[in-house]
Design a protein that fits this description.
204 residues; 7 helices
Length: 204
């Protein structure tokens, strides 16, 4: 992190954890992601409650994960790197409209866009049924709604489908453990996961 911001939260000599604490204590109410708004139930335990208080993303003065410039070129660079490491041509970047170039077979597909995220839940990145017949397992990183259109299309084509709620949970757990050195138990994680499902999917 480098450079000052008007809100004074980002300082060249400040640690990330300290800046997160300053933001948490600054009085701002988070209307941004993540959806838990820093609040976790008491039964989740002190560890997860503390982690939720520092869980932010895409806030002015912090890291911005949106960087659309050069996406296609960067995808090709990454593919070349993987292919060199594998010593074979196993990765090829394609535009969504070029999915018919995928060789016949059954694949694992990870849906990593925001298409299908509520309230825009009637869409999928690719709508053609033929694409979904290529998928044996689909993982949609979107977790709301619980069953996205992408997941439904995968299942209707005979595949298995999962949403991204556990990914959301465990990326938070991993980050907290890395920052603090404090381990989160499986029982704590399961309590949190059950509460997340209850809060997010109660109207579905």
């Amino acid at each position: 992190m480098s450079g000052d911001k008007e809100n004074g939260l980002r300082k060249p000599d400040g640690s990330l954890i300290r800046q997160l604490e300053l933001y948490r204590d600054s009085g701002y109410y988070p209307f941004h992601m993540p959806g838990h708004k820093r609040n976790m139930p008491p039964e989740a335990g002190e560890v997860l409650q503390a982690a939720a208080g520092l869980d932010i993303t895409e806030i002015d003065g912090f890291d911005d994960f949106h960087c659309p410039e050069g996406v296609i070129a960067r995808a090709q660079e990454l593919a070349d790197e993987v292919n060199r490491a594998a010593a074979r041509a196993c990765v090829k970047p394609l535009a969504l409209s070029d999915w018919r170039q995928i060789p016949e077979g059954r694949y694992l597909a990870i849906q990593g866009t925001k298409v299908g995220l509520a309230p825009d839940s009637d869409r999928a990145p690719i709508e053609e049924e033929g694409f979904y017949r290529l998928i044996h397992t689909g993982c949609d990183l979107v977790y709301r709604p619980a069953r996205t259109k992408f997941m439904r299309l995968v299942e209707e084509a005979g595949g298995r489908a999962y949403n991204g709620l556990k990914m959301l949970l465990y990326q938070g757990i991993e980050a907290y453990e890395l920052w603090t050195g404090v381990s989160v138990t499986e029982s704590q994680a399961e309590i949190c996961y059950a509460r997340m499902k209850k809060e997010l999917f109660q109207d579905e």
